[in-house]
Amino acid sequence: MFLLAVSVDTDPELLLARVLDGLRFGSGYGALALALVMIYKATGVLNFAQGELALLGIYIAWALSVGWGWPIIIAVILAMFATATLAAGIERTIIRPFDPSNHLPLVIVTLGLFLAINSFVAVTWTTDLKALPSMFPKGNVFAVGVAHLTWSGLGMFITVLVMLGAVTLLLNRTKVGLAFRAVSSNIESAELVGIKVGQTLQFGWALAAAIGTLAGALLVPELQVLDPNVMLSTLVFAFAGAALGGLDSPKGAVIGGILVGLIRNVVVQSVSFIPSELSVGAAVFVILLVLLVKPSGLFGSSKVVRV
Amino acid sequence: MTPRTIVEGSALHRRVQGANWSLWIITIAILPFLVAIPLKPSVFGNSYTIGLGNVNEAIAWAVAVLGLNLLTGFNGQLSLGNSFFVGTGAYLTGGLVQTYHWSYLSTLVVVIPVCLAIGLIVGVPALRIQGLYLALVTFGLAAVFPTIVKLDQLDRFTHGSNGLNIESKLLPADWMPIQGTLEAIRKIPLIGDWTGTDTFSSRQNEAIYAYFLLVMIAAASFLLARNLIKSRPGRALIAIRDNEIGAEVSGINLSLYKAGAFGASALLSGVAGTMLAIDKNFVSPDELGINFAIFLVVGLIVGGSANLKGSLIGGFAVIFVRQWATQTKEVPLIGWELNGPYGQMVLGILLIALMFAMPGGIAYGLTKIRSRIYRVVPADHRGEAPTG
């Protein structure tokens, strides 16, 4: 019995529009969640600086495309390489010296990175609003009333699926991927069979930074605003996606991200008693609920600890 | 040089302690009069302003860092969401003073139970969520706070994204001898010259009154925290941090103490929020977001985790490093002028550097320096017959 009067918008066109929006943003969140999962899988650390690394990449892409007039796709690819190199350097200099089994100091280091990178971007490019051009052509694939599927929306969705496919292939079909999976399963055993743990983790950081930069370059044109705080709420949505999908499952991250996008754009917008400003709150609620009810998420492996 | 050994409880130890305490009290009493008219030192062509406003803000931050210290430093639960509690305290005080014309101090009657209750509510799910996952959830909590403040339904109390301007001022009563004390301090040689010759304006009087009020609230907070840590529940908190299973086997009720730690932490954070509102007369939603929460972690680590003096140092470090960075425009050997929020960058780098070089924080470093000068050793157990 429902005592609370809930009214839900059920206009089919509006609903379709919201579902399409949800898929579009959700695939962006899924991509960033994939980056978070790569690091979590390898090191067991939640990288709070992932969003800011992506932010740096986005600003590099902005500087190359808008500032120097290069094509946006080339700018994004160069930015991905730049952040990947930076992340590899960060891993080598300030992550590797810490004991990998003690996670809290590592998390605190990523918080320091969060502050430093965020402020570096604000100092270098000022806090003025900017706009990043989209990598996809303008216009609609189809439109039904208020609902329309844009080329950029379709492009984002496909890019993220291709990215997931590439990561899955990399992990399951290559030697680097095998080493990566070995390290994430057991660092000591991996070391004993001769895998270079440090370099493998460095590779994980670089890959995650490149994925995160691509995620940001996909999302920011859709958000239509670029300022140094743009990745903050995005990071919360991505964390929600990663938690929902299971923190150590790449497939789960993308699916979880899309589900969070749908929650943000369909559930929060359609249900009358949730104010639409509280979409970040909805994401936090998802994180809380998943961690309380099923900490391994939808696709993650549940953690068994011997005590 | 070998450090001098002082036996605990001896006359010399008491004299050293007495000297320490007198130095603290005299510094606390004279400091506001020295900086009420802001000092303007100039270094390498940069002019700095150090005023009582910074000191007052730093005192409030010290209490906020203390709140985080109880939870993270002593109990081992990493919280990135303490800005939520600070914000709740600041907005409750702001709303009650501005909308309902309460006095600042009386709002503590509401702030303390409300923040305690919110802390306990947050602490209950935290029982099942540990370590990194707790950091994740509380990170979300900090990110949500500004969006809650900006809700249209709350606009009447919070004034949304414009921030809440509190018009009511904290006025010192007529009997308070602020000018008289100023005159007395001017008679002290050397130090007296710093205070200038002008009589204080009403704004400076208010700042000095606020300072002493904040010092008293902070002293009470630190005293209560110290008593908590030294008592049975405090030992239980530390035992849980060091070995959860061991603590549980020893008969410590984990749920009770872990939720309680959240409650106590939220309570102190809420009080810190009230103190910030007293100091600034202004509360803004964008300041109380995730960056605030991370700055608290910076204060905790830089000052010294699980160290009460560290909280005090950490609060001052955050405020004064930020202040120093915003006012530094020219650095020797660097050709360009520095601009923008790079105080945040300095704090981020400082956090990473201290995690490397001095995980115990500045307080630990100071203790090490002191131990080179003198060392306090416990007295022999009297009444015990020497063995052998």
List strands and helices in order, with pairings.
The complex is a heterodimer of chains A (307) and B (388).
Chain A: H1 12-43, H2 50-67, H3 72-95, H4 103-125, E1 140-144, E2 147-150, H5 151-173, H6 175-185, H7 187-192, H8 197-223, H9 230-245, H10 250-270, H11 279-293
Antiparallel strand pairs in A: 1-2
Chain B: E1 4-7, H1 11-35, E2 42-43, E3 46-47, H2 52-74, H3 82-100, H4 108-126, H5 131-149, H6 155-158, E4 164-165, H7 178-186, H8 202-230, H9 232-242, H10 244-249, H11 254-280, E5 282-283, H12 290-303, H13 308-327, H14 342-357, H15 361-373, E6 374-377
Parallel strand pairs in B: 1-6
Antiparallel strand pairs in B: 2-3, 4-5
Structure report:
The complex is a heterodimer of chains A (307) and B (388). By secondary structure, chain A is mainly alpha-helical. Chain A has one domain (12-293): ABC transporter involved in vitamin B12 uptake, BtuC. Chain A is 70% helix and 3% strand. Chain A is built from 11 helices and 2 strands; from the N terminus they run H-H-H-H-E-E-H-H-H-H-H-H-H. Chain A has a two-stranded antiparallel ribbon. Chain A is globular. The model of chain A has no long low-confidence stretch (mean pLDDT 89). Chain B is mainly alpha-helical. Chain B folds into 2 domains: 77-284, no CATH class; 289-378, no CATH class. Chain B has 15 helices and 6 strands. Chain B has helices spanning 11-35, 52-74, 82-100, 108-126, 131-149, 155-158, 178-186, 202-230, 232-242, 244-249, 254-280, 290-303, 308-327, 342-357, 361-373, and strands at 4-7, 42-43, 46-47, 164-165, 282-283, 374-377. Chain B has a two-stranded parallel ribbon. In chain B, helix 2 (52-74) runs parallel beside helix 8 (202-230), helix 12 packs across helix 13 and helix 12 (290-303) packs parallel to helix 14 (342-357). The longest helix of chain B is centred in the middle third of the chain and has 29 residues, at 202-230. Chain B starts with a strand and ends in an 11-residue tail after the last strand. The chains are: A mainly alpha (307), B mainly alpha (388). At the A-B interface, helix 4, helix 9 and helix 11 of A face helix 5, helix 12 and helix 14 of B.
